[in-house]
Amino acid sequence: MLDIKTLREEEADVRRALEARASNVDLDGVLALDRERRTLLSEVEVLKNRRNVVSKEIGALKKAGKDAGDMQKDMRAVGDQITAMDQRVREVEEKLNNAILYIPNIPHASVPVGKDASDNKVVRQHGEPRKLDFEPKPHWEIGEKLGLFDFERAARMSGAGFPLYMGKGALLERALIQFMLDLHIKEHGYLEISPPFVVNSASMRGTGQLPKLAEDMYHIASDDLYLIPTAEVPVTNLYRDEIIRQPLPIYLTAYTPCFRREAGAAGKMTRGLIRVHQFDKVEMVKFVEPETSYDELETLVQNAEDVLKRLGMVYRVVQLCTGDLSFSAAKCYDIELWAAAQNAWLEVSSCSNFEDFQARRAQIRFRDKEGKVRFVHTLNGSGVALARLVVAILENGQQADGSVSLPEALWSYMGGLQRLG
């Protein structure tokens, strides 16, 4: 959430930022509500001061034995007016606060201006796609032949977009989760937590999913709970409504399943694991001082890259332009894996700096060295999402005989298994 003072005092910069994001937010309406609120508060303050002054005069008249009936009558009318205006202030403040929740974050100055993903910038690439001397099979054919998953039975249980891993497929999923957690905990310095997989509305608002992205979420209306779209939500909300007492930075990592309806994505759905409603993910979250947050973003990206390097993956790092930034991010890098049969790059991680956007919404603060209470900067990155990683492992590791060579880093996690076949 942006500070109303920023919207008011830096209006021209905010308008340029919203234009760069191609945002259709009604900033004029927000600023009009802010002006109305301030006008009402000023008028109410005048009336309250008048009531205080006249009340003292009434007291003096009564003490002197004089009649103050007319003045008392006038003050009752003023009191009614104050009550009505206080109610109007509350109504305007509610409208203003709700309207601000729809305003996206301001892109960092280093973010390239662009209209959509076609204007994103490739920062670097690691490795070159393997040249196959046979026609590569898509992962769903590989997986079904090897008994790794069963999409038909999964659809019978839950509908399209909910995968069912079986046998060595389930083992591969579990091995990847354990490998990534071990790496982040033992070598990258993160503390593991195991959060709830459902959260309340306040938590979803805190990280920016609500109200803007409500249609993409699975909502349990009877309890007003949401299935989490990413571990970012519960992990970031760990310190909601708190002043953090421990030293910064704080690095946290967590495995969770993730659930996304992706409403409005009809036509984008593709076969297999590329776009699913449920997938596993290991997430990294940072709480840092504002002065260090952009250095922390670069190391966050490196931590996600380290996962893929150790798995021998071919990937590239892409900086998102203004038109492709997520609602809450001030700057974001995507990491994309190469998938042989798809002949395409697949996003497997997003690493974002939200600056104080989430912290302001969730009231996450810290005391700086001077003892001043300030909002922290929050960052998060996928470390990494598994569904598309499994796609890349199967399609890039496939052999002519139909088997799949597994990354060496996983052998010990797979009970010594080096090949699926």
Provide a brief overview of the structure.
The chain is an alpha+beta fold. The chain has two domains: 4-100, Serine-tRNA synthetase, tRNA binding domain (Helix Hairpins); 117-420, 2-Layer Sandwich (BirA Bifunctional Protein, domain 2), CATH 3.30.930.
Could you characterize what this model shows?
This protein is an alpha+beta fold and 421 residues long. An eight-stranded mixed sheet has the order 1-9-10-11-14-8-7-2. The protein has a three-stranded antiparallel sheet with strand order 3-5-4. The longest helix has 37 residues.
Q: In terms of topology, how is this protein built?
A:
Blueprint: H1 4-9, H2 11-20, H3 27-63, H4 69-100, E1 121-126, H5 139-145, H6 151-158, H7 168-186, E2 191-192, E3 198-200, H8 201-207, E4 219-220, E5 225-227, H9 232-236, E6 242-244, E7 250-259, E8 278-288, H10 293-310, E9 315-319, E10 331-339, E11 344-353, H11 357-362, E12 364-367, E13 373-375, E14 377-385, H12 386-397, E15 404-405, E16 419-420
